[in-house]
Amino acid sequence: MDTLTHKPASAQSLLELYPRLGIPHFQRGLVWNEDATGLLLESLYFGTPCGNIILWKPLAPEIHGEPIQGQTQCELLLVDGQQRVRMLHAARADVEDPAGKIWCLDLTVEPNCSPLLRDPARRSLFIFAEHPKRTKNARYKQNLIPLTELAEYPIAELKARYDIQGKSGVSAGEIVEAVAAVANVVKVMWARPLFNIIQLNEQKGQLRDKTYGIDYIVSLYNRINSAGRKVEQQEIAYATIVHLYPETTACLKNFFKDVHPQKGVERDTLLRREKERNFGFKLYLRTLVQVCNYHFGRSQGTQMFSFDILKSSDFSGQITQNREYAGMFFKWTHMILVFVHEVLCDSLFCDDLRMLPDIDCLIPALQLLIRYPRLIDTRYKQIIAYLILRTAIDPERTQESTLKLVRYIERTHDAGSCIKGLPTQFGAWSEDKGNRFRNALASANTMNDRYVLLLYWLARRTGAKDFSYANLSSNKPLSHRAGKEMVLSTEVVPEKQHIAPAADLSRDIYGGDSRITTSRHPINNIGNLTYISRELNHFESGLGPQWIDPTKETDPAVLAGHFLQGEALDLYEKLRSRALSKADKDLFEQQYCKARRELIQAGFEAWMDELQKGLDVVDERIKPKKKLIVPDTADKIRWLDYPNRIEDALLMMLGGQMLKLMSEKAKKNKPGDIIFQLQDSGSKSKANIFMFRVPRRIEIEHRDGHGVLAKLESIMEQAGIEKQPNQARPWVLPCGPDEESLTAGILEVFYLNRL
User: Fold this and answer.
1) Residue 236: CB partners within 8 Å, gap ≥ 6?
2) Which run of H or E residues covers position 618?
3) What secondary structure does DSSP assign to 421-461, as a single string?
4) What percent of the chain has pLDDT over 70?
5) Torsion angle of alpha carbons 563, 567, 571, 574, nearest 10°?
6) CATH classification for the domain delimited by 4-92+192-214, as one of 3.90.1530, 3.30.70, 1.20.58, 3.40.50
7) Pairing between strand 495-498 and 126-130?
8) 61 class by beta-carbon count within 10 Å (0-12 exposed, 13-18 middle, 19+ buried)
């Protein structure tokens, strides 16, 4: 069998291949939308070439892929063309999907039928719509015919089955003739050879570019999809990781079971192109890379937003040769993200991921947990909550400030001191910063502004619930009306609501522009927004464009939960009670919204203060996680297991560039677990020091007694350390628990004197 074959193919021949097709594990999920599918069908209809379909026939397809959706076995794996083939299969389905929709041809858009029929209400030749025979939507009843029926039913029967409305003066015969022509084109379009199938057959052999093994195929896939924006970088990264570690998909499924139990674990669900903030595969992969960067000793400051590590030979070599390392990386990624998700839900009241503004606010917290995984503990949730909230709220946050915080975390040597230093890294919440926050809230004029999303967190923290159902008229059948007002949570499908109705404000103050609710406008300022249940927000059965009557609230906590109290409440009542005009613009923007923003700001600031008070809960020494692949010098010092104070003194000296690790070449046969050069930047003199783990001690090599060694000798003599005569290493510092104060004191004094 040839290793490579190619032949022209029609849509019909591709569909005949369908039961034999599978999806490689490294492939992305189904990402095409209805518009893309409609354009593909148009290409078939008008005879436009539809490109290459690349199939791979591996020696063991069951190892490298899985059957395409709905099938039970596979022989050929789709390397390129998955979206087209699967959409063609969906378009030919002769039954509706679970929502009752089916692919239809709109006769009013078809060039030959259009002059004969009533003006189109739609603009696409092919649309995915409710079945025209069963829909209650008048828009889809006329001039639509299911695609499958056009090729199967006689024309006269089609005319009888479907409501085809011609223009005045057009005869039934003309319409039948035109529809018959359309039906013929539809029959032909499935048979036209508009595709080119390229099949790569794996062979046993040594030539990588001729045998079409998995390495070549993954490289080909990434090469094909690196041009343009057809495939996102996370999807290319996924292909690479799956190739190196086939258990990737299983790990992703386990993650989804813990974070998204309601979504299921079908392949398309796992790989859906959702925003990173939705805790899907994008965030999972980015966090995995963040974990890998740490354990490979790569700078998080420069590599944080890059997938470059996946392209390195070091990475592929380590993952291939040490599969347990890969398993650990996936395990830690899972643990960290699940914990962060728990913090968001439990401690930050963000139980609905639609209200997470971005993932940048999570990055410092992720890095803290990567470096100190022992913080993944219920006792420390408040610490992570503080770090996330403080990062999210910071009005001066930039990508650079986020990376600066990450670099600070990377420089610390124990979790307790790292956490205590976080407020300093952020800077005091000064009057100036408070003013910047105030200005940020004043300019929060869109429905998806990050502070508007964070308002949901704050409202839930205050225990916000629906406004009194007494505001509803008796003829509005709210399903929960007989019960208690619903408390704000993801279960009630929270939605944003304009407290002062947008319709009234738009009409009476701003001149009636209906688009303002979907754009940047003072009506959408955070000072006029809150969250209520979808049911209460419903236009017909809920509040709709109705004002809230505060007098109907029997519980003052309800209004307080929506930051509608004091001056803000008085100003709201003033707006509600008058006939609004353009003259009330200042009353709305500069008084009511401002007063309510002040309450919101005070709520956020009080919350931050409360969380900051919980930063002292770490009462044990938690060391950084040792880098698994490329341990750094600090890792090696911690490995010695010296008492804490001695370890801290050595790390301090390392940070002050007083210690330089001796090269492996220079060591030769010199005994010592770790050998450093002790350096004096002033005199440029050096002395070798030898560190031992068992028994714990430091030995210092004899030199001429000048420079750096002379300083150290003087300090040791003052401390009562005796020099051992006639020894190559006459100075010995014991490093056991009993000698902690003595040895650490010597090193600390030496460090301070050197400075």
Assistant:
1) 222, 225, 226, 307
2) none
3) THHHHH----HHHHHHHHHHHHT--STT-HHHHHHHHHHHH
4) 92
5) 120
6) 3.90.1530
7) unpaired
8) buried
> Which residues, 6 or more positions from 25, have their beta carbon under 8 angstroms from its beta carbon?
64, 65, 66, 242, 243, 246, 248, 249
Which residue's entry shows tokens 């926050």? Answer: 437
**Single-letter amino acid code for the residue at 686:** K
Write down the domain spans for the chain. Answer: 4-92+192-214, 101-175, 232-427, 440-599, 633-754
Residue 324 phi, psi dihedral angles, 5° rounding = -65, -30
Q: Which residue has tokens 């050096």?
A: 686
Residues 6+ apart with CB under 8 A from 699: 672, 689, 690, 691, 692, 729, 731, 732, 733
DSSP per-residue letters across 53-99:
EEEEE-S-HHHHEEEPTT-S--SEEEEE-HHHHHHHHHHT-SS--TT
Bridge partners (DSSP) listed for residue 530? 497
Is the Cβ–Cβ distance between 11 and 37 less than 8 Å?
no
Q: Is 697 left (phi over 0), alpha (psi -120 to 50) or beta?
A: beta
Q: Distance between CA 401 and CA 291 in Å, rounded?
A: 20
Both tokens assigned to 753? 């004197």
Please name the amino acid found at residue 539.
F
Tens of pLDDT, residues 248-269: 888 989 998 999 888 877 777 7
> Residue type at 408?
Y
The answer to whether residues 714 and 752 touch, using CB atoms and an 8 Å cutoff, is: no
Higher pLDDT, 218 or 499: 499
Give phi and psi for 345, each to the nearest 5. Answer: -75, -50
Q: Which residues share a beta bridge with 488?
A: none
What pLDDT is recorded for position 228?
44
Please name the amino acid found at residue 41.
L
How many beta carbons lie within 10 A of that of residue 151, not counting itself?
16
The answer to whether 139 and 121 have CB atoms below 8 angstroms apart is: yes
- pLDDT tens digits, one per residue of 373-391: 999 999 999 999 999 999 9
Q: Does the pLDDT at position 512 exceed 80? A: no
State how far the Cα of 64 lies from the Cα of 295, in Å rounded to an integer. Answer: 28
Average pLDDT over every residue of 318-342: 92
pLDDT bucket at 121, cuts 50 / 70 / 90? low
Rounded to 5 degrees, what angle do the CA atoms 37, 52, 26 make? 80
- Indicate the SS3 state at residue 133: coil
CA distance 208 to 664: 37
Nearest-CA neighbor of 751 among 646, 645, 644, 652?
Answer: 652
User: pLDDT (tens digit, 9 = 90+) per residue, 255-308?
Assistant: 989 998 888 777 777 777 677 788 988 899 899 999 999 999 887 665 566 788
The residue count for the chain: 755
**Exposed e or buried b per residue across 431-460, where buried means at least 16 C-beta atoms within 10 angstroms of its C-beta:** eeeeeebeebbbebbbbebbbbbbbbbbbb
pLDDT value at 707 more than 80: no
DSSP annotation string for 546-606: PPP-GGG-S-HHHHHHTT--HHHHHHHHHHHTS---GGGHHIIIIIIIHHHHHHHHHHHHH
The residue whose two tokens read 């009533």 is 118
